[in-house]
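lol ok so funny story. i was supposed to be doing the assay writeup but got distracted and ended up predicting the structure for this chain instead. priorities right. anyway since i did it might as well share w the group, maybe its usefull for someone
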Amino acid sequence: MAVVHQDAGHLPGRDKLVDIPALVSAYYTEIPDPSLRRERVSFGTSGHRGSSLSRTFNEEHIYAITQAVCDYRKVQGIDGPLYLGGDTHALSEPAFRSALEVLVANKVSVRIAKDGAYTTTPAVSHAILCWNRDREKGLADGIIITPSHNPPSDGGFKYNPPHGGPADTDVTAWIERRANEHLEDSNRKVHLVHLRTALASPLVEEFDFIGRYVADLSNVLDMKSIADSGIRIGVDPLGGASLPYWGVIAEAFNLTLSVVNEDVDPTFRFVPCDKDGKIRMDCSSPYAMNRLLDMRGKFDLAFACDPDSDRHGIVTPTELMNPNHYLSVAAGHLIRTRTDWPSGCGIGKTLVTSAMLDRVGKDLKRPVIEVPVGFKWFGPYLRDARCGIGCEESAGASFLCFDSTPWSTDKDGPLMCLLAAEIMAKTGRSPSEEYAALTERLGEPIYQRLDAPADEKTRSRLKALTPQDVSLKKLAGDPVTRVETHASGNGAPMSGVKVSSANGWFAVRPSGTEAICKVYTESFKGSDHLAAVQKDAMDFLESVLK
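and the output, tada:
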């Protein structure tokens, strides 16, 4: 089990703060070497991420990726506006500018935030869906410049096609391949105009992301119930892109809402260190959320989002809710209260999200659709209302509007935060109290993720596994009921394996961004049983390594 760093939960010292001038200078001056694998463009489950200091996120990368997106748009006949957003990481602003130079040079109509405001991931997804509704031609897509909750030294680039959600693996593979071709050719085929020319171009139009997002919230949430309840709400945007949204939301719906931290600083010096002692804006980490937890007595409910606002953190008077716990409560509440959703509308979950959602689905007589890791898999199910909500264990989710149309097909942190307020307004109980009542009826799981080293050989072995390769007959003493290497919901490969019994399960998959294997474990029979599940999981992984 990982050791908790002595600085976890404490504000970072000066020695932990990234040198912003050096970081931004390296973005422009360090040139990646495409012959080195680590310096090439690489799309994981959430786009391309890296740091200018390690030559993994530099101007040449952004030029190449953006040109590849333009190439993809041309091949696919995507000719509507492209919504371009970015968060508060230091590298987001220069990368935003670089992307804009390429987009305009390629004659792409670009919509950017009014007055240079930061733009959240869900606001981009919502804008794409609103534009594309009832259209067959002139479809929109989007780019969000963000590494999500990653440390301050990182940058990131995500592409959302016309369906509004994260690009599918076939799309990201195409863009990755074309971007690396541009890099190998020293970006000679990248079209560019000067930033000043781009900003003056009629192709660039300001768009009110905040206004559109806030105006539509009453189509997806019972905002009147929240206002009428008088719930005292505290919000910490963690220095992220959601900051300008909360005041507008509070004023528009007359909420009793206070933003407890209005600082924006690319060093993120106001975010306590995470478990490993690093600055990481993870709103599901009790260490990073330490300051908001200290304030919980001042509010009935408190929220936080990561920098691009695709994740949620829910603080009740008693705790920071475990994401799996909150998702179980949220899914149950939505299925019970959204009476205009189709009767067969189910619950979507990734294969490593709590099996408590399976029990919730069974209890409510609704299907539970399990997909591989990555929110992109939920898009089709949200678009045709086969799922009312898509849930990721890493504090990511989105759900349908009251009329069964998709609100966003990307994760939406503010939406899930406000849903917690709706739950409290309608039930009179906090989401924590709702979860406690749920466990009394359906059982109480214990969930934990472990990490193990993984070289390329191990990763390849895991990806090549079939159920026949797994000889386990018992898991923590219980008969194995299912061995899967493909998700049961859509048949897509897991890039790993999941082994289940009636009382627990484990899943092993290689990380998309680090040289580790992620080992997810859960038990419905207590801590001793969880330890036995973990032992079986690690023994299995060791057998794979031989």
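Residues 19-212 form a domain with the Alpha-D-Glucose-1,6-Bisphosphate; Chain A, domain 3 fold (CATH 3.40.120.10). The first helix runs from residue 20 to 29.
back to the writeup now i swear
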